[in-house]
Amino acid sequence: MGLSKQTFEDMNQQQEQIIPVPEQEPTPREILIEKIRKKQLRLSFSSLKSFTSPKEFLEYKLKKFKASPDMIFGSLCHVLILQPHLFDEKFVVVSKGPSTDNQIAFAADYLSGLPIEEAYSNNYKTGSHTKIYEELKDYFAAVQSGKEIITNEVYDKAKKLTDYLISTPLFLKYLEVLSDVEVEVKWVANGWYFLGYIDGQITGLKFDLKYTKNANPDAFERDIVKMKYYMQAGMYDDATPGTLDKYVIIAFDAKGNFCDIVIDRSFIEYGKREYKYLLSMLEKCAAEDRWEESYNFFDHSQRTLFKPKYLKGFATDPDGIE
Fold first, then answer.
1. Closest CA to 149 of 226, 95, 79, 222
2. What is the DSSP letter of 21?
3. Torsion of CA 105, 107, 108, 114, to 10 degrees
4. What is the mean pLDDT of the chain?
């Protein structure tokens, strides 16, 4: 007896239902969120500071890091001041790097693996690649070394600045008694794993060296608050319990100005409370899957902006109005 039409259709439907659906590979964002949920992501001061909103935190962790010229210059000065013997290991000096938009784009295309002729034709309408390649061949070799690239001009500027700084009484006061520099610290807080580096330490004292645009202490005090350096002090105090009597930030700028500022113990303790609060909020965000939220994640009620008292009134205002 043949199968009925209904039976045949039912069998086909069952076969369709059991056809395996290929699983999609998780996206980098999904992988990151899962690592956060399981506390498998190692954190640092920089990453936790970026948690101004769930959206900002994910973007910070997912973006490809590219150091700015100021960051490279600050890192170069750090090495020249604290670890000059590691300069050749970390940096390579070239006479010239790509400077124009066309040169930058040509170099990026060539270094990405394109044939040199194709990289050139992508960015220039006429001429040959020979001249531009000769100008940049030292730069290409430097890129392949994997080290940070700086020009002679940048190196000379940093060397002149740091030679001056390390000769000043303030810098000598710290550098002459240093026991360790660039100290790696690892610790666990609330189940999260952390990694950091303390620029320098002496018995009972730790200091952080900061390159800034303006080392005037009145201006840099505001930077300490804005950049949350007090929280970094609290985190490193947590990483080295019982060993920190004083935490000092030494700030310097490109003009050769400098200052040293001690972070008060009360401010260090505040920094500890803040980073523990951020960890609890990160856990909350992961548990409730609130990654699509922005600054409203921390602002639980709508803000109202009132007129600041310092704004002046007007001659036409009625009496008594504010």
1. 95
2. P
3. 110
4. 90
- What domains can be seen in the chain, in order of their start residue? 26-61+168-289 (3.90.320.10), 69-152 (no CATH)
| CA dist., res. 186 & res. 88, Å (int) | 27
> What is the SS3 assignment for 191?
coil
User: How far is it, in rounded angstroms, from Cα 59 to Cα 36?
Assistant: 14
CA-to-CA distance for 165 and 279, rounded, in angstroms? Answer: 38
Q: How many residues does the chain have?
A: 322
Name which of 75-84, 95-104, 162-171 the model is least confident about: 95-104
Q: What are the Cα distances from residue 31, in Å, to 26, 27, 41, 62, 319? A: 6, 6, 10, 10, 62
- The answer to whether 58 and 291 are in contact (CB under 8 A) is yes
What predicted TM-score, i.e. pTM, was given to this entire model? 0.82
Structure tokens at 159: 């060397």
Closest alpha carbon to 234 in 81, 48, 52: 48
Element (H, E) at 180: strand 180-189
- The residues pairing with 262 across neighbouring beta strands, listed in sequence order, are 248
Alpha carbon 86 to chain centroid, angstroms = 22
